[in-house]
Design brief:
This protein is 80% helix and 0% strand. It contains 16 helices and no strands. It is globular. 58% of the residues are buried.
Length: 412
């Protein structure tokens, strides 16, 4: 059984968090849910291009999938008050229904662009609930000495799916068609729910049941961040990089695949998968290091290397070179997000983790805005110009933050 194999891995010090059965099940569920999400992102991006032949519409649909992040801070409050396993089941169930509806609409021939946008909005809301809940859930499932290892392993699980999901979505489009792709996505989400149901007797619920109102809980979380300079700076970096660097996967890669590299849907899936492969390599490297030292310095270097690789991507017209550059971008991106998550959770008290991770997810609201504006700029001036402008701006922003907050490099 796969779960038993994970238990055996847990005997190795590099995978110590897998000794805890609850975390093993959560890790397996993360593999399933994130695979479905990334496959859906590739399929819906290509479907939008086929329906509209418009880079702007691709940006709008990508933005719709993430606009729900604006609700993430409130979802973080919910994660601090309710059974986190139940919340994950709700998110998976809604995603399963949305995929089934998309499948039925496509097979019946009734699918229209407004359906795609509407279901993308639903998907964004469920992710806004899932992400802070899943991250806040991790410390409930492992001992404190295994927390850093659990965070890194959770990131590895996500990045494995960034390789598998897009490649799966890109390959299934020409092999089985859109209908077959969405049928498989629905099946994966069903398995995700079954794994979560297995956790019922294994979870030590660390949920705070306070008597203050949800709004007051959110305000107390904001005050906590304002008084914690480390967490505040990390959230600002996450906000800005989500706006300027992260759109390459969602708004720009489908445009490069179709209009610059002439790679088709399978080539687009491989481009996205290469970003995931780079991220997976980065995650395994962080796991192998254990408790990484000089985290601040590593964050600065990777935060500059990420947009630098995207600036080179904007100049590339060769598919093989673009694959390498996307791999480097994915590697640097994963290091940035892993270090930020580790530093935030290690500098946040247990009763605040749901709210703070909700705010961490909430700052991703800058990503749909970046997708939308990126699609609009690409519509007028082309994808290479739009990607190059975004990447150069991200480099300047990171250098400015390093100059304004020199203590960032000293974080550990």
């Amino acid at each position: 059984m796969p779960i038993e194999f994970l238990a055996r891995l847990g005997r190795m010090p590099q995978f110590a968090a897998l000794r805890h059965r609850g975390f093993r099940l959560l890790w397996a569920a993360t593999l399933l849910s994130s695979t479905a999400r990334w496959a859906d992102l590739v399929v819906v991006g290509w479907l939008t291009l086929e329906l509209t032949d418009s880079p702007l519409m691709v940006g709008i649909v990508a933005a719709s999938k993430m606009v729900g992040y604006v609700a993430a801070p409130f979802m973080g409050v919910v994660a601090d008050r309710m059974d986190r396993r139940l919340l994950l089941l709700v998110a998976a169930g809604v995603n399963l229904v949305a995929s089934a509806v998309m499948l039925l609409l496509f097979v019946s021939g009734w699918l229209a662009l407004w359906h795609v946008i509407g279901l993308a909005l639903v998907s964004g809301l469920t992710w806004a609930l899932d992400n802070p809940t899943r991250n806040a859930f991790v410390p409930d499932l492992v001992e404190s000495e295994h927390l850093t290892n659990a965070i890194a392993l959770n990131a590895v699980a996500l990045e494995i799916t960034v390789v598998v999901g897009p490649a799966l979505g890109g390959i299934l489009i020409p092999v089985l068609g859109m209908g077959g792709a969405y049928g498989l996505i629905a099946g994966i989400l069903l398995l995700d729910m079954l794994v979560l149901l297995m956790m019922q007797k294994d979870v030590r619920h660390g949920v705070a049941h306070g008597h203050e109102s949800p709004v007051k809980s959110l305000v107390s979380g904001l005050h906590y961040v304002w008084g914690n300079q480390t967490v505040l700076v990390l959230l600002v970096i996450a906000f800005l990089l989500n706006f300027l660097a992260a759109p390459y996967r969602y708004a720009f890669l489908p445009l490069f695949a179709r209009y610059v590299l002439d790679a088709g849907p399978a080539g687009y899936g491989m481009l996205t998968a290469m970003a995931g492969l780079g991220a997976l390599v980065a995650g395994l490297w962080v796991v192998s290091l254990g408790n990484v030292e000089r985290k601040g310095r590593l964050l600065v270097w990777s935060g500059v290397a990420w947009p630098a690789s995207l600036l080179l991507l904007a100049m590339s017209t060769w598919y093989s070179v673009s694959l390498v550059l996307v791999f480097v971008a994915g590697l640097a991106q994963a290091i940035v997000w892993t270090i930020i998550a580790t530093l935030i959770l290690s500098n946040t008290t247990q009763p605040m983790r749901g709210r703070i991770m909700g705010l961490r997810t909430g700052v991703v609201i800058s990503l749909p805005l970046g997708n939308f504006l990126g699609g609009a700029v690409a519509e007028q001036f082309g994808a290479p110009f739009a990607q190059g402008t975004y990447a150069a701006s991200a480099i300047l922003v990171m250098l400015a933050i390093v100059l304004l907050v020199p203590s960032l490099r000293k974080l550990d």
